[in-house]
Amino acid sequence: MRIGIVCYPTYGGSGVVATELGKALAEKGHEVHFITYSQPVRLETYSENLFYHEVHVPDYPLFDFLPYELALTSKLVDVIRFEELELLHVHYAIPHAYAAFMAKQILGSTGIKLPVVTTLHGTDITLVGKNPSYKPAVTFSINQSDIVTSVSESLKRDTLEFFDIHKEIEVIPNFIDLSLYRGLDTTGIRQRFAKDGEYLLAHISNFRKVKRVGDVIKVFNRVLKEKPAKLLMIGDGPEREAAEKQCRELGICDQVFYLGKTKAVEKLLAVSDLFILPSETESFGLAALEAMAAGVPVISSNTGGLPEVVESGKVGFMAPVGEVDQMAKHALTVLKDDETLRRFKNAAYGHAENFSMDAILPKYEALYLKALAHA
Ligand code: GMT
Fold first, then answer.
1. Is residue 212 a contact partner of residue 218, using CB atoms and an 8 Å limit?
2. Is any ligand 1 atom within 6 A of the Cβ of residue 93?
């Protein structure tokens, strides 16, 4: 198939899922064209089946706001026509589903059919999409998509609750390429952060409010009172400064490493003992799955789609949002002794296999065929 993929190219779950999906499809022989405003961060590999088309938004003194949807729509029309794409898969409804609808209309006026698959990822529904400024356009464009998928049952429920949707929503969970976590050379990495006998905890996110990074620090600080440990804070975003300040106030700066948007995520996870994800809301929690793929147990909040990912008591534990005492208690249960930690680590890795790329990719391919058949 010749497939167009639209996504956010930056760090963030939806862009990662879209890019890994595109790469896997290309490996299976499909021709995949990414259309977005900059090269997706995970699209560094070369494949003869992978293409990238950059959307440029020309500025003009009249524009207080650059019309990205318009430029994206025009680019879609151009690429789809010229490359003879058969299908468009857009990730994150805002504004991609809307641009896809417009492109479909324009192409339709010249007799070109374009099936559109929209994947809902989370904040496009739970935080941003239901804002009245966007809601009518989001509702409309979801309903106009030929196929709609969501990354968890929880997100599907939220979508049906917040929007007037009369389209079937297929749930296809996030997935992971387990091969990325095998045979890694991690020589010296753990020693760089933790001494012998110290536990290594980790958190990865875009440090937005929804991630509750302050709770990560609180949980870690409680763990520190019982066990020698270090914390890796991976990623960057608006809440980083506040989290750094929190560490200073608690006097634990020497125990916490802020590593920013490093690309060595798999290696850092591979040397970690425990992952903390106390989010306010999380439609799936790809970061938790990445941790498990590296054999790292997870302590998370029990919000949104996380209960579909984190098998509490087996691969880690969940606690209600904000319950940092409970989370710390759970963390100490996992870190109780070497044998317990090993059991949780093995279970985490085993559970990640349920979300392997091999298991999930055929589901998308089947949906594409369905979309093509109905076009
Ligand atoms: O977590 C974020 O803020 C990034 C966001 C995104 O759209 O890139 O992630 C969402 O999509 C991911 C991939 O489907 C999910 O794994 C995340 O749970 C979801 N984030 C939230 O719901 C907050």
1. no
2. no
